[in-house]
UniProtKB/TrEMBL annotation:
InterPro entries reported for this sequence: EF-hand-dom_pair, EF_Hand_1_Ca_BS, EF_hand_dom, Myosin_RLC
One Pfam family linked to the record: EF-hand_6
Record carries keyword Heme: no
Database matches in Gene3D superfamilies: EF-hand
Keyword flag Calcium: yes
Protein name: EF-hand domain-containing protein
Alphabetically ordered keywords of this record: Calcium, Metal-binding, Repeat
Domain EF-hand stretches: 27-62, 97-132
GO MF: calcium ion binding
Length: 173
């Protein structure tokens, strides 16, 4: 009888989360699937605490505490399969334009709205505020998103790349 009960619970959770796929466009679901696959480090179809730790390590952050990981895992009611993963992001992204959200974060450092930030300023903020980056992490970021000849970061293009996965210039060719 124990297995029948859990079968019903599974059916209920599947029902409530199946409509999560209708919240996203097919291309977004594909991007989430790629992100999920990257985070599912041991490829078992579920993201667990070990996968989270390995994902942070792959991103260069080796000092994530157990408490931080537990806090993240608490956001889900159980094992995080792809449907749950999508539902969690759906909740967080509901009513937000990711590109606009990220742009607004950068605009705090660009009150004149030029669309660029000095590389030195970014390095300073990243290494001295909140989740302090190491110099190596900042340099890695600049490798992926190089500064222009004047030493500035075009954050509008960076936001576009983060949310669309390609450079605006490349797309318009």
């Amino acid at each position: 009888s124990g297995s029948r009960k859990s079968g019903t619970a599974l059916a209920k959770s599947a029902e409530s989360s199946s409509n999560v796929f209708s919240m996203f466009e097919q291309s977004q679901i594909q991007e989430f699937k790629e992100a999920f696959t990257i985070m599912d480090q041991n490829r078992d179809g579920v993201i667990d605490k070990g996968d989270l730790r390995d994902t942070f390590a792959a991103l260069g952050r080796l000092n994530v505490s157990n408490d931080e990981l537990d806090e993240m895992m608490k956001e889900a009611s159980g094992p995080i399969n792809f449907t749950i993963f999508l539902a969690m992001f759906g909740e967080k992204l509901k009513g937000t334009d990711p590109e606009e959200t990220i742009l607004n974060a950068f605009k705090i450092f660009d009150p004149e709205g030029k669309g660029i930030l000095r590389g030195d300023d970014i390095k300073y903020y990243l290494m001295s505020q909140a989740d302090r980056f190491t110099e190596e992490e900042v340099n890695q970021m600049f490798t992926n998103f190089p500064l222009d000849v004047a030493g500035n970061l075009d954050y509008k293009n960076l936001c576009y790349v983060i949310t669309h996965g390609e450079n605006k210039e490349q797309e318009q060719e």
